[in-house]
Write a structure and sequence with these properties.
heterodimer; A: alpha+beta; 3-stranded antiparallel beta sheet; globular; B: alpha/beta; 5-stranded mixed beta sheet; two-stranded parallel sheet; elongated
């Protein structure tokens, strides 16, 4: 039987046993380390977490319902507001999902520019993750250093698309317009500089004794459990599963570039940190190759003025910085989709929080939430 | 004019498949279907794929057979669909089967996708698959919250996004985009000093 529950939390209804050390602690939704409006209700015994319940939905805006009422082109800016840390990746998932209904020939220049911008957004997203994650655990300097480089990426977005956060970068069939020539020069400068900056972060953290104590062996999830919980992205790879949609189902310009997929061993917070650091270096490597190979020509193919996909259903997903970000679209042949379903990596990765937290200390919950790298805009949709 | 271009594009996508009408084309997912039907005859009611693409193979399942087919697809080495990546519902208010529950599976070992579908009548329940894939737990809560579809034997049957006392299910097609006015904010009257 479903429904008819009065209280919003299962744990709040469970009474703690009197005379014991059991305690219910309410974390969020305004707590800075919950990375947005996430409320976590924790049942503690002493300092050990016994049970976890997440209260989400504070940012639920009904984006999928909005998508059913507007045209395919009009939905692109809404995808910016899902994963607003890496907006071009969300754009890319949507435009590719709609394009997969057709057999348009997307020009090569558009594919390479999409890859460059997509990887820049991965760097921006991972930098924000590293900054806030390190800040949560107590490393202030990393926060300032990461935002310095993130600022450079956002400046690049502003130069090319006129916006810093919600860039609305791509259009169905390619890009809205070509990037300015300075963009490529500045992107090259940034890529040449960036690996040395990642070295700087590593000097602060990778062998830092406090960092190791706070992250090693914390929030361990095995490969079987990670698959069972549907986790994707750096979490799954940190648990030792080599699964990256850029390699498994190559899209955009990924078939033409060379990159390695980092894989962890222990599946703890520290391995997720290492995997993401290697991913940042690999992103820079991919952008470097794309800039070398960037062909000339148009950035958009000829598309019909009204986009009317034939009736049918499509599921298309890409490797977002947080994991598999996909769209399931049901078309009835009209100008608006019949049903849009967003496959959010944050929502599904967050569902495994309980599995990772039970048995850990209260202070480790902060580290674990940080290591999942959630964006509530995309989690709640 | 623009519509003509649109249909032209759509037909262009279909034409490569009709090049050799003589050769009997094997539909994608045939081997998988035979695998499942050999174990559970009659569990797959229908099969489809958008433009015969391998990644869009869809099996329409008998709701009673869902859980055992799901366990079989997860555990059999030839299929090995270890990840349930997406679970959603589509509402067709005018059809006999008003809800289609859609399960999107991923096989990491074989690098392939499969979609399962169960069609439900109004007020019909579907068995939960949260015992097969733990990720289904929150996804089924989401479908219940937004569509009102009930999952039999769900371990944690609560709403997930909307408030518990919302009363209706906003992603149904008969629910207006601007809402039903469940939550009308009325400004509380301010007490003046000395009142």
């Amino acid at each position: 039987m479903v429904g008819g529950v009065e209280s919003s939390s299962r744990i709040e209804r469970i009474t703690t046993v009197p005379g014991t050390e059991e305690l219910i602690v309410n974390m969020g939704p305004q707590h800075p380390s919950t990375h947005g409006v996430l409320r976590v209700i924790l049942k503690l015994e002493g300092e050990t977490v016994k049970d976890v319940d997440c209260d989400i939905g504070y940012l639920h805006r009904g984006t999928e319902k909005i998508g059913e009422n507007i045209t395919y082109t009009m939905f692109i800016p809404y995808t910016d507001r899902l994963d607003y840390i890496a907006a071009p990746s969300s754009n890319l998932a949507w435009v590719q999902a709609v394009e997969s209904f057709f057999d348009w020939e997307i020009p090569d220049r558009a594919l390479f520019l999409r890859t460059i911008v997509g990887e820049l957004s991965r760097i921006a997203s991972h930098l924000l993750w590293l900054a806030t994650h390190a800040l949560d655990i107590g490393a202030m300097t990393v926060f300032l250093w990461c935002f310095r480089e993130r600022e450079m990426v956002l400046d690049l977005f502003e130069m090319a698309f006129g916006a810093r956060l919600t860039v609305n970068a791509f259009r169905l069939g390619g890009l809205h317009q070509d990037v300015p020539p300075e963009f490529l020069v500045e992107a090259r400068k940034f890529i040449n500089l960036f690996p040395s900056r990642v070295d700087d972060y590593e000097t602060l953290l990778t062998e830092n004794r406090i960092w190791l104590q706070r992250t090693r062996g914390v929030g361990v999830i095995s490969a079987e459990d990670a698959l069972d919980y549907g986790m994707t992205g750096p979490i799954l790879r940190a648990s030792g599963v080599k699964w990256d949609l850029r390699r498994a189902k190559p899209y955009a310009a990924y078939p033409y570039v060379d990159f390695t997929i980092p894989v962890g061993e222990n599946g703890d917070v520290y391995d997720r940190y290492l995997v993401r650091l290697v991913e940042m270096r690999q992103s820079a490597h991919i952008i470097d190759q794309c800039l070398d190979m960037l062909p000339g020509g148009p950035v958009s193919c000829k598309t019909p003025r009204t986009i009317k996909p034939p009736a049918g259903e499509i599921y298309h997903s890409i490797e977002n910085p947080k994991g598999e970000f996909g769209f399931y679209i049901v078309s009835d042949g009209s100008e608006t989709p019949y049903r849009v379903k967003i496959r959010p990596p944050s929502f599904i990765n967050l569902a495994g929080l309980k599995k990772m937290c039970v048995g850990e200390f209260l202070a480790d919950v902060v580290a674990i939430i940080g290591s999942i790298d959630i964006v509530l805009g995309e989690c709640d949709r | 004019m623009s519509d003509e271009v649109g249909t032209e594009e759509a037909n262009g996508g279909n034409s490569p498949g009709t090049e050799s009408p003589e050769a009997p084309k094997t539909p994608p997912g045939k081997a998988l279907r035979e695998l499942v039907e050999g174990e559970f005859p009659g569990s797959i009611l229908d099969q489809s794929a958008y433009e015969d693409r391998d990644d869009e193979v869809t099996f329409i399942l008998n709701g009673d057979a869902l859980v055992k087919v799901a366990i079989y697809l997860r555990d059999h080495p030839a299929s090995s669909f270890k990840i349930l990546t997406d679970l959603t519902a589509v509402h067709y208010p005018d059809d006999e089967y008003t809800f289609h529950i859609v399960y999107q599976l991923v096989s990491v070992d074989h690098c392939r996708l499969l979609r399962l579908k169960v069609k439900l009548k109004e007020d019909q329940e579907v068995p939960t698959v949260s015992g097969v894939w733990s990720s289904a737990n929150w996804m089924e809560r989401e479908v219940y919250d937004l569509f009102g579809v009930r999952f039999k034997d769900h371990p944690d049957p609560r709403r997930i996004f909307m408030p518990e006392d919302w009363g209706s299910h906003p992603f149904r097609k008969d629910y207006p985009l601007e809402g039903l006015g469940e939550r009308v904010y009325t400004k509380p009257k301010r007490k003046e000093i000395g009142e």
